[in-house]
Design goal:
The complex is a heterodimer.
Chain A lengths: L3 E3 L4 E6 L2 E6 L1 H7 L2 E5 L6 E2 L4 E7 L3 E5 L4 E6 L20 E5 L11 H11 L1
Antiparallel strand pairs in A: 1-2, 2-3, 3-9, 4-6, 5-8, 6-7, 8-9
Chain B lengths: L6 H6 L3 E5 L2 E6 L4 H10 L1 E5 L4 E6 L3 H8 L12 E7 L5 E11 L2 E6 L4 H12 L5 E4 L3 E7 L3 H9 L11 E4 L2 E4 L8 E7 L3 H9 L4 E3 L2 H10 L35 H10 L3 E8 L10 E3 L6 E11 L4 E9 L8 E6 L2 E8 L9 H7 L1
Classes of the chains: A alpha+beta, B alpha+beta.
């Protein structure tokens, strides 16, 4: 699990070679409530660090999902659109996009599991 | 931020709280919006709506006062009967919408929106100078809505109040409670006005019943959206007229022009309007929210804007309300809604999106 990092926007990032798999944490999933729609990006789109690349719609509101890394989207998990229950911290099924990381230094400063858990603890 | 008398009860139920109309209000409880919504449609939900303004207008001129401030008829309203209406401004726009119940010949109980109550009270006071009326703001009363098919049974079993003879849009008084058979969900149900010191016990007594679910403002919004009820500040405001809003039926029984905004409103009623409030249902995938623009299909010709929008748990579709140019307002017309630059197919739909099950509506269907 040491190659999984977290953002304070509640995304998880699994790093495999030069590719970042990005999803949202289970905490985020619960905070969003009942999800009804996921708007996915297209493969090939170039993302800048901090940019939103997907939108989840709950009954209540729309929420954007942000990338913590700059790079190109090399894969999109189209299965998620019809399996919204998988959108959580499930490293196999819950990833939204895979991004080819342009600047490895973007990964510095992201939280590890224990830091993220402590961060979430402080929110409640 | 202000709190209702039920604030501690919401916190104890671990509600997600947020500011609404100046109050710290429950948005949803632990079960979530979808479950709260469905519980109201299938069983019974309780809602703290104590942020709303409760006012008594009384005096020998009460009827003529109300008939100057609204385009509705009150002289013909029977005692105990309630009516939906709006306060109009001089330009024919809407200051607020409200329910007015006749408690006695010269006494009316008025419930207005929480976010508008200060403005409404000032408007009442300003205009009251010309009439023999008295305006009493019942700040010491709480308001709980009980909504859903099991509401009548819950009221009987939890509070011992028998409403089997109470009609839709009728109010009864019992033991300092004002119990009105109406609501904002399209279900059978009640709004119960009570002295604030009794609110916690009444809330807990109702909530103790296994058929009752506490419901927050998020599901209150999805429930009213399915019914096509306008929400003040979104679907109606000080620029929209009752005719544009499609609620000109509130004028039934009025054939005079002695109310604020009559010039515009009567002109629109006879000559028609250039924009109308309509229902919108997305047929493509996605959800469209307030502010989303509507286009003629396949073009960049803008024809309207959504004033409310969200996901309807009952129909499992994204729905909304919009103002569109009258020529594009026909039910069944195809439109595009543009969400974050992406077009989603949609259709102008009739409202309500879900059939009303209020007591009268049920009776008629039987």
């Amino acid at each position: 699990m040491s190659n999984v990092k977290y953002t304070d926007d509640h995304e998880w990032i699994k790093i495999e070679d030069d590719t970042a798999w990005i999803g949202i944490t289970t905490y985020a999933r619960h905070a969003l409530g009942d999800l009804v729609f996921l708007e996915l990006p297209e493969v090939g789109r170039q993302l800048n660090k901090g940019e939103d690349f997907a939108v989840v719609e709950s009954v209540k509101a729309a929420s954007e999902i942000y990338t913590p890394v700059t790079g190109e989207i090399v894969a999109v998990n189209d299965n998620l659109a019809d399996n919204l229950d998988d959108l959580k911290e499930d490293l196999d099924k819950g990833w939204i996009v895979k991004v080819k990381v342009s600047n490895p230094e973007d990964l510095e400063g992201l939280m590890d599991k224990s830091s993220y858990d402590a961060f979430v603890e402080g929110l409640d | 931020m202000k709190q209702t008398p039920l604030h501690a009860a919401h916190v104890a139920l671990e509600a997600q709280m947020a500011e609404f109309a100046g109050y710290d209000m429950p948005i949803q409880y632990k079960t979530g919006v979808m479950a709260e919504h469905n519980a109201t449609r299938e069983s019974a939900g309780i809602f703290d709506v104590s942020h709303m303004g409760q006012v008594i207008i009384s005096g020998s001129d009460a009827v003529s006062f109300l008939e100057e401030l609204t385009p509705s008829a009150f002289g013909s309203l029977g005692t105990t009967r309630a009516k939906y209406t709006v306060l109009t401004n001089e330009q024919g726009g809407i200051i607020d919408d409200m329910i007015v119940s006749r408690m006695a010949e010269d006494q009316f109980f008025v419930v207005v929106n929480g976010a508008c109550k200060d403005k409404d009270l000032a408007w009442f006071e300003k205009n009251a100078l010309d009439f023999d009326v008295q305006i009493d703001h019942l700040e010491e009363r709480a308001l709980i809505a009980l909504q859903g098919p099991k509401s009548e049974q819950m009221l009987k079993e939890s509070l011992g109040i028998d409403t089997s003879d109470l009609d839709y849009m009728q109010m009864m008084q019992t033991d300092e409670l004002y119990v009105s058979r109406l609501g904002y969900t399209g279900e059978d149900g009640f709004e119960i006005s009570m002295p604030q010191e009794r609110a916690v016990k009444i809330w807990n007594d109702l909530n103790a019943h296994e058929a009752v679910t506490p419901v927050g403002l998020a599901a209150r919004d999805s429930l009213r959206l399915e019914m096509g009820y306008p929400l003040y500040g979104h679907d109606i405001d000080d620029t929209t007229s009752p005719v544009e809003a499609g609620i000109a039926w509130i004028m039934r029984g009025r054939d005079d022009n002695n109310f604020f905004g009559a010039e515009r409103i009567l002109k629109e009623k006879s000559e028609g309007v250039s924009r109308k409030r309509v229902g919108v249902r997305l047929t493509g995938k996605g959800v469209a929210r307030e502010g989303v623009e509507l286009f003629k299909p396949g073009t960049d010709e803008k024809i309207g804007v959504l004033t409310s929008g969200g996901f309807s748990p009952t129909t499992q579709a994204a729905i909304g309300q919009a103002y569109v140019e009258a020529e594009h307002a026909a039910v069944g017309a195809q439109i595009d809604v543009r969400v974050r630059g992406r077009n989603i197919e949609a259709v102008i739909d009739k409202m309500p999106f879900v059939a009303a099950k209020t007591k009268t509506a049920t009776k008629k269907a039987a």
